[in-house]
What we know:
- By secondary structure, this protein is mainly α.
- It has helices spanning 3-7, 19-34, 41-48, 52-58, 62-86, 91-108, 110-117, 129-151, 160-179, 189-196.
- 67% of the residues lie in helices and 0% in strands.
Amino acid sequence: MTLDxxxxxxxxxxxxxxxxxxxxxxxxxxxxxxxxxxxxxxxLAEKVGVSRTAAYHYFQDKNDLLCAIAANGFRxxxxxxxxxxANQLPERDKFEQYILGYISFATHNPEEYExxxxxxxWKQSKCTPELxxxxxxxxxxxxxxxxxxxxxxxxxxxxxxxxxxxxxxxLHGIAKLFIDGVYADVGRAEEIVISALPMFLVSKL
Length: 205
């Protein structure tokens, strides 16, 4: 009998042996509905239907849980990048989808995005090794994409790293304006991002 089986009290809506991911998914939904401040390991355990001991077996405290949510967000974003790279689209269209996909991910998952890039974790230097690894890997994937687009004469700039940082900074700023309510109409996000495309492009491949 596994530890997960012993600790489960009443909820059978997940596979035994995958309780950690179930807790992370449930916590992500909870912060999406009620915000980061509302989350606690006790409430999460009650939501999933397991003992509090089960939650503490996987996460030593709330910060550990928040880092796991952020890490899962990076994995989902990285999967989107992999799917984009696999698409048989003209490279300019891929770049456009990359730009639009970033803003869409941020504005549709604001609480999760705040954990991935906000001060709640990073400014306090409370980042777990898991989150450090996946965030760096994901950013490196984007640097490699920019490097390729530069090599075919699509994206401007002479340093893939610097250009990736500039593009990321621009997209992050736009995303935050919508997330924080400075720009109230999220429906205009795509229009604004499309207007920024010429800032990065060399040609119209």
